Amino acid sequence: MPEWIKNGDFKDDIVLSTRVRLARNIKGLPFPGKMTLQTQVDRLTEIAKSSFVDDSDFEFVDFAKISNFEKWILQEKYLISPQFARRKYSGLVLSRDERLSVMVMEEDHFRLQCILPGLAVDKAYKLVDEMDNMLSKNADYAFSKKLGYIAACPTNLGTGMRVSVMLNLPALNIAGKMGPVAKDLENRGLTCRGAFGEGSSPLGDLFQISNEITLGYSEKEILEAVKNAANEIITIEKETQKTLYDIDQAAIEDRIFRSLGILKNARMLSTKEMSKCISYVNMGISMGLIDGIEHENLYSLIIDTRPATLAINDGKILAEKIRDERRAAIVRNALK
Fold first, then answer.
1. Residue 104 Rama label (left phi>0; alpha psi -120 to 50; beta)
2. pLDDT, tens digit, for every residue of 286-297?
3. What is the end-to-end Cα distance of the chain in Å, rounded?
4. Of 14, 82, 302, 314, which one has the greatest count of Cβ atoms within 10 A?
């Protein structure tokens, strides 16, 4: 189970996680994509280390000293972006509980992140804001009175803040309502994406909602917009679950209990099939049809059975058949 998901507050059982991310750059230095001098990279690394690593709660992961396989595992845990996983230099500041991190030399000089289990927008912002204060003591940020924090991508100008909430929305997907929901979010300056963010497809019925624009809005306005949208979608999802159940109880129960049977008995499971089954079982728990299974354990399986994590003891990519067999065994054991 990933460290950041342990002891999660899943009272809002539809929400897997909340993430708040800040983009920050140093005045006078080119963006990472244009940086050519090792001395500039070293300067950023030193700023990150002096800001955080002296604190025993953080460590610095040097990307020049770990394998691409280890970077892939970090990506599967949602701790780094796919773009950052391809980096061969710089590194990652990471807290012991993996809930706080700083990507050094991603698209921006620093990407500060807090990821928490469940719906925890205000708490995640408070923690990442504290990290921002720690970093700013050693960093002279690139900032404009007109444009706010300067970022490599224009969509990150302003606060430089992205707030995202990952939700499990099987009923909305079954009912064909995700299109209208996504359109409504778009009209409110928000966006709906797959589980791994921009350009990704949904994993099971996991969708990530986040703010689209950071310029012209305060941190408080962005936090409230995402939080309100998440709560509204939670309400709609629960209402849709009830409606579907009232219309065809047998069909919904069949989806839920057939999925539970597959998870408990399958000898081979693909990521796609497992994720879909977990989505339906989570819905069954939410609806009070299944007890004795914790949302925390189900959500952790989504990460614990990703390809690189499955092969952590092998250090190499496994054949698909072997991955599917290992995934099924892990899931069966978790649901005993």
1. beta
2. 999 998 888 888
3. 16
4. 14
Domain boundaries, the chain: 3-239, 248-334
Tokens 């892939």 correspond to 72
Q: Are 226 and 19 in contact (CB under 8 A)?
A: no
**Across the chain, which distance is largest between two alpha carbons, in Å?**
65
Q: Helix 249-265 to helix 271-286 angle, to the nearest 10 degrees?
A: 130
Instruction: Render 143-181 in DSSP notation, one character per residue.
Output: EETTTEE--SSGGG-BS-EEEEEEEE-HHHHHTT-HHHH
* pTM recorded for the entire structure: 0.90
Q: CATH 3.30.590.10: does it fit domain 3-239? A: yes
